[in-house]
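Course assignment 3, question 2. Fill in each field.
Student: A.L.
Task: Predict the tertiary structure for the chain below.
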Amino acid sequence: MAAPKKGRRPTGAQGRPGRALAIILIAMVALTAGMFLSKQTTPRLGIDLAGGTSITLKAKSEPGKPDAINETNMNTAVGIIERRVNGLGVSEAEVQTQGRDHIIVNIPKGTNEQQAREQVGTTAQLYFRPVLAFADGSPAAPEGTQSPSPSASGSGAPKAGDGKSSPSATPSSSATSQGRALSEALKAPNAPSPSPSASESKKADDKAPTPSGSASATPPSADEQAAKTLQDDFAKLDCTNEEQRAAAGKGAKPEDPMLACGQRGTAWGKWVLGPAQVNGQDVKDAKGVIDPQRGAWIVTMQFTDKGADKFAKITGELATKQAPQNQFAIVLDGQVISDPSVSQALTGGNAEISGGFTQQSAQDLGNMLSYGALPLSFSEDSVTTVTAALGGEQLKAGLIAGAIGLLLVVIYLLVYYRGLAFVAIVSLLVSAILTYTIMALLGKGIGFALNLPAVCGAIVAIGITADSFIVYFERIRDEIREGRTLRPAVERAWPRARRTILVSDFVSFLAAAVLFIVTVGKVQGFAFTLGLTTLLDVVVVFLFTKPVMTLLARTKFFASGHPWSGLDPKRLGAKPPLRRSRRTGSAPAPVDAKEA
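Answer field:
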């Protein structure tokens, strides 16, 4: 006699629903505790709900580049500005073009709003130029005067400067020596040694007799004339004047020498700089960090392979020279932000800039170096403050609409599902708690900000979540209509409902993911919220709704099919219990004696 087959254990772990409920309870407690510990008990709001600043930037035409303002450069500028602002932790910053030559930047109200505003229009054209001469910012300052300058160091190499004052040029530094340095800078990289200055050439020519027997002066070369002009402009430059600071070096090409202004501490200084040797495109990554040994803020830089070679070459050349020509200036948008000195070639592809940085200035510089230079120059066309009044009214209207929709769903569940409505309402409450705490934590963690489209996504998710409950409830009712009792009906309905719920939520999540990828701005908030709530719907149905139904199926109120349970067999039109009838075989016909 064959042994009877063992029945298959029902899918859904009927005997251990408490484990799933414990998991989701722990998750809710952990998320709530994390929300309070992070001191971010409410979701961060976008500019349409919290207010903020709206900046309109206008692209400026540059001499010699009439076609620079085009769609490609404008889109590139939008991407760089967006990365800069969001790199500061400003949530939900919106950057978009308007017309042919305008960019609109919306910065939500927050702690980094002012810092972001300072960076949005900064072109961030970065160059590393050798220093030819330095003086105080006043035009009356003696040439060659030096003050403390920051130092630069390379990875794996000792620091190039010691952080002390750079050696000062001697008072006898004359226009002749400066003219010689400027003349040398004007020459090509492979040119022979620098020629004497115009004044020295004149003296030599005065002493040498000409073939005719009379002395005549040799006219200065073009390089010497350019150097003399640059030297005169340098002497007249007043970097304490804002207009002269803005005009200094304006329009200078990377391959030409230039004048530049900058601050050393609280005082202004002015520089004569040689042709650019390294530019911002040679910097792969940069960030402001605190030096644990000195306790000071520095900016660390990582160069590209090509940039590392160029940086090692220029620092090697500068290390053999005397101050101030052993320094290189880091020039950002025509202004010197640092001029470290070097004593040896810096190799390894890494370097750091130190000296006089605050936390904000170090992080600002690292942020701009990391995300690159804007392809165009911009000016602020307008700056307006956006209030949250209009967004608040829209939010209020949206919340009222959401509350009405939720109330209608609850009324429908109570009328149609009766006792089962309790399961659906509590499941919606669990989903709401998870959604709220996660949004609050994401605001602190990744800068997620809740805007009006995101609120719409959360309202739409109410219907998606309620739909999952309805699918499961209807599968249970189908099993009861077939004549099964509640406990086996709950377990047999789950595999069929689970497949439907997963397919439905996968389609919703896929739509949200595609929408998030192909759109920009506020629409991404709608897609993100929709995708998040769709994932939470799966979590709630698997870890809360199903285990709760398993426990309720053991109670008398639901198991007996109470009329208010929503599972009354009579009301559902259930069939009689299924019975398997035995098939009885017909008796053999009696054998006739005669035939026998």
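Instructor remarks: The radius of gyration is 39 Å. The mean pLDDT is 75.
Grade: pending
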